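Service request form, structural biology core

Requester: graduate student, group of Dr. S.
Request type: structure prediction, single chain
Budget code: on file
Notes: please return the result as structure tokens.

Sequence provided:
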Amino acid sequence: MGRPWSSILAGPGGGIGWASSETYDRLSMRAVVWDGDPLKANADYHTHVRSQRRMLIAGIGVEFSTRRRNKFAGSVETIEKQGCLLDICTTVNEAIGYVDILLNK
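Core staff response, request fulfilled:
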């Protein structure tokens, strides 16, 4: 715990629509994770231990059909586990759409 980690997330069945944003500063995700995944381990730690530290989160969302990329950073407000599914609600402090990186160069 306390170190950077990464996970690759997808929705149930690999379908679209597993991440949504109802307001400009909230992001909700319903993602599939498996045993040994760093996100699941950190979720277990923060839900069972009730850590005094906020669980921070950052990510890059990619829409492969259009190559659109969006970055976000914030903290996890709630996280609920249902078997291999995680329902995550985050407060977003920073978001950037259409990230210009070297993929098009």
